[in-house]
Amino acid sequence: MTAFRYSFLQVLRQGLEGHRGWAPAWRSPPLQKRYDVVVIGGGGHGLATAYYLAKVHGVRSVAVLERGWIGGGNSGRNTTIVRSNYFFPASARIYDLALRLYEQLSAELNYNVMLSQRGLLTLAHSDHAFELAARSVNAMLINGIDVELLDRAQIQAEVPLLNFAPDARFPIHGGYIQRRGGIARHDAVVWGYARAADALGVDIVQGCEVTGFRIDNGRLVGLDTGQGPVAAGAVGMVVAGHSGALAAKAGFRLPILSYALQAMVSEPIKPVLDTVVMSPTTGAYVSQSDKGELVIGAGLDLYPSYAQRGNLPSTQSILAGLAELFPSFRRLKLLRQWAGTVDVAWDYSPIIGPSPVEGLYLNCGWGTGGFKAIPAGGYVLAHLLATGRHHEFSAPFDLRRFETGALIDEAAGAGIAH
Ligand SMILES: Cc1cc2nc3c(=O)[nH]c(=O)nc-3n(C[C@H](O)[C@H](O)[C@H](O)COP(=O)(O)OP(=O)(O)OC[C@H]3O[C@@H](n4cnc5c(N)ncnc54)[C@H](O)[C@@H]3O)c2cc1C
After folding, report:
1. Cα 69 from Cα 30, distance rounded (Å)
2. pLDDT in tens, the chain (418 residues)
3. At what angle do helices 89-109 and 186-199 cross, to 10 degrees?
4. From the CB of 75, is ligand 1 less than 6 Å away?
5. Pocket test for ligand 1, best of 368, 379, 381 (most atoms within 8 A of CB)
């Protein structure tokens, strides 16, 4: 097990010794025949689940099974925005738990997740949009979230690069900002949780695809994998865009559709943008990475798909919107473009809780915005797996809300994704 503490003195010592003494950040153990808990999916949510199982609940016989490499799914493909400015109380509670956990995460994991609370600004491009922004801000303040409504002049002071010309295609009428929002380094979040979970005895098994479910009398007793069968006391299914396909193998349907969601980066430039800017009207949002690249995110492709590419019309419409918002970005070259397969639930909120198969628990449906939720998603799923009961923060997100009608329609409520 890894018991190597990262510190300034270690960096100094290893530097003097030619960096030959670093231990691997996590082991590559063979798959055992049985675990108390198996987590399917080595993204941020799966790894955080394993970490909190071991750390908070003392459950050490845990495996995370990842069909590719950890963080190779959406957790390593997103635009890294963190925020908790949600409209409905249940959403605000769980996303703010995540943000509070993020604020402690580097120290907790002994791994720098590079959280940068540089503020997240959401723009309103018409009087009507500004009124809706005021409504959202009022709801968020009631939810206890730190947001501020800003007028046009205040936004100009915050982000002077935006297009304030009188004939701008998307005039800026105002907006709102969450100053605790910002970005974190996505790979570091995955690797930090992996390293910390491994140090507590969790087996992270990569290249191990779950291909089937062994169900006895309605109860899940084990899984079939590419590396052989494995028995499990309880199983967490945390596979994002593949949730629908895997649920079908377990014999039930989920109210989820999988879409490609794309992002892109520009060539690196000197620091010009010190906050995250979102424009729901154009669908574009942008931040500047520490490397200097502009990280640009788009909306969903318009049809369900498992292609991790993203289509050209979406790329074009996002870049057109961005060029209108920031005229000075027009001359920049695009460096890379990619997409991930996101799992969108019918009400755009996550699904957390028991599945129709006893012993199988779900954490999915985070869609376009689950990176910011990783610490909380892992925390509440660990609670479920260890106790068999909902954490109070996950209860509203149970699958049964699609039977009772108690939906949490955040897309309609807050009007923004990611
Ligand atoms: C382009 C893009 C931009 C985004 N931007 C943001 C953002 O700015 N902020 C934000 O909060 N969220 C954002 N998101 C959403 C966010 O990335 C996801 O909601 C989050 O990463 C989901 O984490 P996860 O651990 O559930 O899934 P993943 O990281 O996708 O992990 C699931 C894992 O399960 C594995 N798997 C699948 N099937 C199997 C199987 N049968 N057996 C074993 N393993 C399997 C996959 O290989 C994968 O590694 C964005 C997503 C994309 C694609």
Report:
1. 15
2. 556 799 999 999 999 999 999 999 999 999 999 999 999 999 999 999 999 999 999 999 999 999 999 999 999 999 999 999 999 999 999 999 999 999 999 999 999 999 999 999 999 999 999 999 999 999 999 999 999 999 999 999 999 999 999 999 999 999 999 999 999 999 999 999 999 999 999 999 999 999 999 999 999 999 999 999 999 999 999 999 999 999 999 999 999 999 999 999 999 999 999 999 999 999 999 999 999 999 999 989 999 999 989 999 999 999 999 999 999 999 999 999 999 999 999 999 999 999 999 999 999 999 999 999 999 999 999 999 999 999 999 999 999 999 999 999 987 666 556 6
3. 70
4. yes
5. 368
Is any ligand 1 atom within 6 A of the Cβ of residue 246? yes
In a domain, residue 249? The reply is yes
Interval between CA 73 and ligand 1 midpoint (Å): 5
Is pTM beyond 0.85 here?
Answer: yes
Q: In residues, how long is the chain? A: 418
Q: Report the first-to-last Cα separation within the chain, whole angstroms.
A: 36
Q: Which of 301, 322, 345 represents a domain boundary (last residue)?
A: 345
Structurally, how many domains does the chain consist of?
Answer: 2
- Ligand 1 binding pocket mutation candidate from 45, 70, 78, 224 (most atoms within 8 A of CB): 78
| Cα 216 to ligand 1 centroid, rounded to whole Å | 30
What residue's CA is closest to ligand 1, atom 48? Answer: 73
Both 398 and 263 in a single domain? Answer: no
Is the C-beta atom of 101 inside 6 A of ligand 1? no
Pick from 83, 203, 239, 288 the residue to mutate for probing ligand 1's pocket: most ligand atoms within 8 Å of its CB: 239
User: Which H helix or E strand runs over 248?
Assistant: helix 243-250
Q: Are residues 89 and 142 in the same domain?
A: no
Phi and psi torsions of 387, nearest 5°: -110, -20
Distance in Å, CA 410 to ligand 1 centroid: 19
Asked if residue 42 and residue 27 are part of one domain, the reply reads yes
- Residue 389: which domain range? 23-112+185-254+347-404
E strands along 86-239, which residues? 120-124, 148-151, 174-178, 182-183, 203-206, 210-216, 219-225, 230-237
- Are 163 and 300 part of one and the same domain? yes
Atom of ligand 1 nearest to the CA of 80: 8
301 and 314 Cβ atoms separated by less than 8 Å: yes
